[in-house]
Write a structure and sequence with these properties.
Layout (H helix, E strand, L loop, with lengths): L26 H27 L88 H4 L12 H16 L29 H6 L6 H6 L1 H4 L1 E2 L1 H7 L4 H5 L7 E3 L10 E5 H8 L8 H47 L23 E2 L6 E4 L6 E4 L3
Antiparallel strand pairs: 1-3, 2-3, 4-5, 5-6
């Protein structure tokens, strides 16, 4: 089967608009073109003959007409008889057409922009319903393998987990089996209650507050050993936040917030320690000085509140004067007029001010118009 020889397309029938028509070739030009074509063909045939004489195969095979023959694959190489069932199976199968068509994943190199990505085996991953990787997916990730003490380990039962939580609570409180031992033989070096001399002191308070007191004395003397919250210490004893955060100055005991578990922990202070610092010369000096400071702040707070109320009241009076004047003009004249007109007479109203009277509440001078009753504050320098 021979392919048809390509032919020159026919010339255009008519010239396009805006172009000059091309003049036909002269017989001399046609003869020169044919001569050059024959010379080039004879020169190519001579080169190929010299290559065959030297035992070299010509680089291109050509038809008798001089056209190169394309190196097409035979029909057996493109047959679908040995093709895999799907393209997915073709990754691991070799096509019998030739070695250049072997499908090997070792020879496949990723694109340069994808070389920094990590390839995960999704068939071994666990669906956590959140789109995150688990510890089994990435065993070398230390953040994933870090244990959370608030969560139950997977290898523990519920009873074992509750027992571990109870032991942890007793260890923190130094109670139960974790309470330090008592001995009457070492009475001289043993820690005793500062009020009754009992050996059964609260070891947690001794560790946090440095206070040796037993549970009986805590219940017996609440005015001394009761616990104060941070808000109570700040409002009742007028202490500042930096002072309350200083553990060396005022040690505190942290407890979970009873109002909401997600809020910050409560900071509890020992009452007698707070009073010792508040009544010391470093702060207020005495309970009387604290009471004076408390009364002074309350008076200042009350004064600011009254001053703010008077300012709002004066502003309200100024804003309502215009509306009151408009209503009085509407009742007297039956219509609305301009601000400043004389009521019932027409024309411009001129104020006739009386003498200045000092207001007892504000301390400012106020003068009143005799005719319309308008009041104006007057400052005297």
């Amino acid at each position: 089967m021979t392919s048809p020889r390509p032919s020159t397309p026919p010339p255009a029938k008519g010239p396009s608009s805006g172009t000059i028509p091309r003049s036909p070739l002269t017989p001399e030009q046609i003869r020169r073109i044919e001569t050059n074509r024959l010379k080039a063909k004879s020169l190519r045939d001579r080169h190929e003959a010299e290559a065959r004489n030297r035992g070299q195969t010509p680089s291109l095979q050509r038809t008798p007409s001089g056209f190169p023959v394309g190196e097409k694959r035979p029909f057996t190489r493109i047959s679908t008889a040995t093709a895999p069932a799907s393209s997915r199976d073709g990754r691991n199968q070799e096509v019998s057409a030739g070695p250049q068509f072997k499908s090997s994943r070792d020879n496949i190199q990723p694109a340069q922009k994808f070389t920094r990505f990590v390839e995960y085996d999704f068939s071994k991953m666990t669906d956590t319903k959140g789109g995150f990787l688990t510890a089994e997916d990435d065993p070398h990730n230390k953040a994933l393998h870090k244990s959370n003490p608030e969560e139950k380990p997977s290898h523990m039962t519920l009873q074992e987990w509750e027992r571990q939580q109870l032991l942890r609570s007793l260890r923190n409180q130094k109670a139960g089996p974790f309470e330090p031992g008592l001995s009457v033989l070492k009475r001289e070096t043993a820690k005793e209650c500062k009020d009754c001399g009992s050996l059964e002191i609260d070891w947690k308070w001794e560790e946090v507050f440095g206070c040796r007191v037993c549970n009986k004395c805590k219940e017996k003397l609440p005015e001394k050993y009761s616990l104060l919250t941070k808000t109570e210490a700040r409002e009742d004893y007028l202490l500042t936040d930096p002072e309350l955060r200083d553990e060396e100055l005022l040690p505190h005991l942290e407890r979970p917030n009873p109002h909401k578990s997600t809020w910050n922990n409560m900071m509890l202070y020992l009452r007698y320690q707070v009073e010792e610092y508040a009544f010391s010369p470093r702060k207020w000096g005495s309970p009387e000085a604290l009471d004076e400071e408390f009364a002074k702040r309350e008076e200042e707070k009350k004064r600011r509140k009254e001053s703010k109320f008077r300012e709002k009241l004066q502003d309200l009076k100024k804003r309502t004067r215009v509306e009151a004047h408009r209503r009085s003009r509407a009742n007297a004249g039956g219509g609305y007029g301009n601000f400043g007109d004389e009521i019932g007479k027409g024309g411009k109203h001129h104020h006739e001010w009386g003498r200045v009277v000092e207001d007892a509440e504000t301390g400012t001078g106020v003068k009143t118009c005799i005719e319309c009753g308008m009041e104006v504050e007057e400052l005297t320098f």
